[in-house]
Amino acid sequence: MSRRLADVATKVGVSEATVSRVLNGKPGVSQATRDAVLTALDVLGYERPTKLRGERGRLVGLVLPELANPIFPAFAEVIGGALAQHGFTPVLCTRTAGGVSEAEYIDLLLGQHVSGVIFAGGFYSERRADHGHFRRLEQLGLPVVLMNASIEELDFPRVSTDDLIAMRQALGHVTSLGHERVGLLLGPADHVPSERKLSAARSFADAHGLRLDDELVAHSQYSLESGQAAAHRLVEAGATAIVCASDPLALGAVRAVRRAGLDVPGDVSVIGYDDSALMNSTDPALTTVRQPIEPMGRAAVDLLAGMIAGVDVPRDELLFEPELVVRGSTAAVRRP
Predict the structure, then answer these.
(1) pTM of the model
(2) Which tens digit of pLDDT belongs to each residue from 252-282?
């Protein structure tokens, strides 16, 4: 008992007396401290007192930004299966407009006494978002793994697709087809993966003598409709190829090209990103950069399981190499 008190007190940064008050259900301790003490018990592998166990099981939160983009259900399937192999049950949390917020989901997950959380997208990758709930998870010491790039200040393990290689693959493909007016259709300007893609594109352009004017860079929300509106500006700017930061954005770009009375790929080539479900069945089938979902999802679960078991896992970002999948939405530039 005394060792448990000492270990938990050290983990949380409070006195052993405070830990004892929490374990015995005594008043005089803030809710935040109670949550931190109980989470520390779970993380360190100690059983809670019977009256504090509630419905606790081997639960892991899986937080997704949406389900409309097929890439996120694909990640959920892989991660859920890998968690089951480790003996964990995923608790799926998905943000919706006007619904439960990401911070509120964290409250719910902590109330369920989850052993850890995997984020497959979320506010950690948006610089202007509120990151208070991530700071809270850091302070609690709860095991957390992030999928794809995050703001630098968060010290969680990350499993990411290499945006530098992804952009090199996409731009290398369209420039090999003779395209010189290449447009970029990216996510919001404060979205870290989009920042990385833009930086990689500028480096590629400098190295290969490719002009990347500001009018050829468009930022959009991650939806087909927003992608269509942003791609319309790129078509008006004379882009003969459009490299997109997601498959739904690419489908929006295809629609924008057609609304302008042009042909894909005859007049404008389009490249997506993710290789989500059914992209080989679109008209035309979408050329895209494939994220390695299976190994990424398994790596995220392995990292989380190690943290839950008390293993000191690396905090360096694990980068996975994507794969260019060439289909029918790209072709050689049409010469006048």
Answers:
(1) 0.82
(2) 999 999 999 999 999 999 999 999 989 999 9
